[in-house]
């Protein structure tokens, strides 16, 4: 669920829906330490998972979480639960609109706003291979090796962008696809 944790959703909804266990990253969507997380669900299964924690040296022992990360997760979770999700959604959508607008003048590139299943806007980009002679795999590899590195999967999701990063992403994509069109 990492970065796609639905906004405004009770974290316990999945258990109520019948899931035996739910594992949620403490980082990404919740905004806590990347090395933290939440395991929720059936008591017997959680107790079985705990058999791999201190003082036992089971499978998960090497992936232990320190007390500092646990406190960080609790603080992040309290902040997450107290957040105004409507403001978040509006902000993510506005960032998507900024990116899409910046890409409108790139020859052969189409950048359109699409509503995702979580209820906020993403930017979906496609291109004419006669104008921009790149395959999707080539674009993905080049964008990952560029600066800043971008993980591109045909849809640009703004949920985890910090304020101002949408301008960096838009400029980088604009320059990348404009240069590719000129090859």
Spatial arrangement of strands, main beta sheet: 3-4-5
The total of beta strands comes to 5
Number of domain modules: 2
Helical residue percent band:
25-40%
The average pLDDT value, as a whole number, equals 86
**Count of helical segments?**
6
- Report the uncertain regions: none
Q: Assign the structural class, choosing from mainly alpha, mainly beta, alpha/beta, alpha+beta, or little secondary structure.
A: alpha+beta
Looking at the structure, the CATH topology of the largest domain is Aspartate Aminotransferase, domain 1
β-sheet strand percentage: 5-15%
Radius of gyration: 20 Å
Which term fits the overall shape?
elongated
> H/E order of the elements?
HEEHHHEEHEH
The largest sheet, given as strand count, sense and whether it forms a barrel, is: 3 strands, antiparallel
CATH class of the largest domain: Alpha Beta
* N- to C-terminal distance: 39 Å
The CATH architecture designation of the largest domain is: Alpha-Beta Complex
General description of the model:
The chain is an alpha+beta fold. It is built from six helices and five strands; from the N terminus they run αββαααββαβα. The chain has a three-stranded antiparallel β-sheet with strand order 3-4-5, with helices on one face. Strands 1-2 form a two-stranded antiparallel sheet. Helix 4 runs parallel beside helix 6. The two termini are 39 Å apart. The model has no long low-confidence stretch (mean pLDDT 86).
């Amino acid at each position: 669920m990492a970065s796609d944790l639905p906004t405004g959703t009770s974290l316990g909804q999945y258990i109520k829906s019948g899931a035996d266990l739910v594992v949620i990253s403490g980082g990404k969507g919740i905004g806590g330490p990347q090395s933290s997380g939440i395991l929720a669900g059936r008591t017997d299964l959680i107790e079985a998972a705990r058999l791999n924690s201190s003082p036992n040296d089971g499978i998960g022992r090497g992936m232990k979480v320190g007390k500092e990360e646990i406190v960080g997760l609790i603080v992040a979770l309290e902040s997450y639960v107290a957040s105004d999700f409507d403001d978040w959604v509006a902000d993510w959508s506005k960032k998507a609109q900024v990116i899409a607008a910046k890409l409108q003048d790139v020859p052969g590139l189409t950048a359109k706003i699409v509503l995702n299943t979580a209820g906020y806007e993403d930017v979906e980009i496609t291109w004419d291979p006669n104008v921009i002679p790149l395959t999707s795999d080539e674009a993905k590899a080049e964008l990952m090796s560029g600066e800043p590195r971008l993980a591109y999967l045909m849809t640009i999701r703004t949920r985890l962008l910090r304020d101002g990063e949408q301008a960096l992403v838009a400029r980088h994509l604009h320059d990348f696809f404009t240069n590719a069109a000129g090859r």
